[in-house]
Amino acid sequence: MRIFHRIPELRAHLARFDRPAFVPTMGNLHAGHLALVQQARPLGDTTVASIFVNRLQFLPHEDFDSYPRTFETDCAQLEAAGCEVLFAPSEPELYPQPQRYKVQPPAELADMLEGQFRPGFFTGVCTVVMKLFQIVFGQSKGGGHAVFGQKDYQQWLVLRQMVQQFALPVTVHGAPTERAPDGLALSSRNAYLSAAERAEAVQLNRALRSLAQALADEKWDGAGGAGDLAAQEQQAVAQLNARGWQTDYLTVRRCSDLQPPAATELAGCRTGQDSQAGQLLALGAARLGRTRLIDNWVF
Ligand code: PAF
Question: 23 and 122: one domain?
Answer without folding.
Answer: yes
